[in-house]
Amino acid sequence: MAQAENVYINTNEHTRRYSETETREDRFIKRLQKDFPAHTYKKSAPIMHRIRSIKEKEELDLMQIACDITGKGFKRVLDFVKPNVWEYEIEAEIIHEFTRNRSKGFAYTPIIGSGKNACVLHYIENNQQCKSGDVILMDFAAEYANYASDLTRCIPVNGKFTKRQKAVYNSVLKVKNASTKLLVPGTLMNEYHIEVGKLMEKELLDLKLIDKNDIKKQDPNWPAYKKYFMHGTSHFLGLDTHDVGLWTEPIKAGMVFTVEPGIYIPAEGLGIRLEDDVVVQKKGAPFNLMKNIPIEADHIEDLMNTKR
Ligand SMILES: [Mn+2]
What we know:
Blueprint: E1 6-9, H1 24-35, E2 40-43, H2 45-53, H3 57-80, H4 87-100, E3 105-106, E4 111-114, E5 135-139, E6 142-144, E7 147-148, E8 152-156, H5 163-181, H6 189-206, H7 212-216, E9 256-259, E10 262-265, E11 270-273, E12 276-279, E13 287-288, H8 297-304
Parallel strand pairs: 1-2
Antiparallel strand pairs: 3-6, 4-5, 5-8, 6-7, 9-12, 10-11, 12-13
Helix pairs in contact: 3-4, 5-6
The structure holds manganese (II) ion (MN).
The site of manganese (II) ion has 5 residues, from loops.
C-alpha cells in the first residue's frame, strides 16, 4: 500500500443490485478508506464489465455444458408432464436431473407457470395443478461451474397444442429467430429492441390482437405491441443470469445474450415465451448454445407423445 497510488475497489454496480444489509465488501471498502485515507480510490466495475461481457473459449465451453444440462432437464420434463401434474412436481424433476449431472442447481429461481400463471412475469409460486388444455411456461436453467444458462420453453399439458396456442407459439418463434439474426457485431442494443418491436407488431397484427388503429394512436414511449410483450428481448449472460455488460456500446463477438420474446394474453389464459442463449460471432448469425434443445411445436408434440 505504501507504494501504490490508486486503489480499485469492487463496488456492486449491477443494474439489479439489491441488498438491505451491509455486505462484507462494503465493510472492507470502509476499512480500506479509513486506514489509507490519502490514496486515490477508483472503481473496478467498468473494467470488470468489459472483461466479463466478452467470453473466452474456456468460459464458452462451461456455458455450453450448463446449456446441455438444462436441455437434459427439459427432455425429462417432456417425458414427465401429463394432465394434473403439479407445477412443483415439474420443478422437482428438473432439479433431480440437474444435480445428477453435476450442476450446482438452478441458475435462478425457476418459473413453472401453467395456464394464466404464464402471464405473471415473475411467477415463482409453482404451486398449481396443470390442467389439460393449458400450456405451461417454464423458465428454468442450470448453473455449471459458476456460469449461468437461461432457457424458456412452453409445452401443452396434454401433449397437443390447440390451433390458437400453436399460432401464438409460432409467432413468438418467428420473432425469436428473426431477432437472433440481428445480434451481430456493431448492433446497438437500444436499436435492436426497436427492431424486435417492429417484428412483434407484425405478428400481433396477424394474430388480430392489435389493429392498425391501435398503432396509429399509440404512445411512442409505450407502443401498442407492449400490451402483449412488455419486457426486454435480450440481456447479457455469464457469471450472473442477468450479467453485467456494456449496454450502450456496439456489441462484439464473444458476447453472450439471451433471446426471449413473448406474447402474454391473460384473457385467453395463455402466455408464450421462448428463450435461447446465443454467442455473437465475428461474422454471420450468432451461435446458438441451445440449438439441440427442442423448440419446434411439432417436435415438442412428437416427443411428448413418444413412449420411451
Ligand atoms: Mn432471460
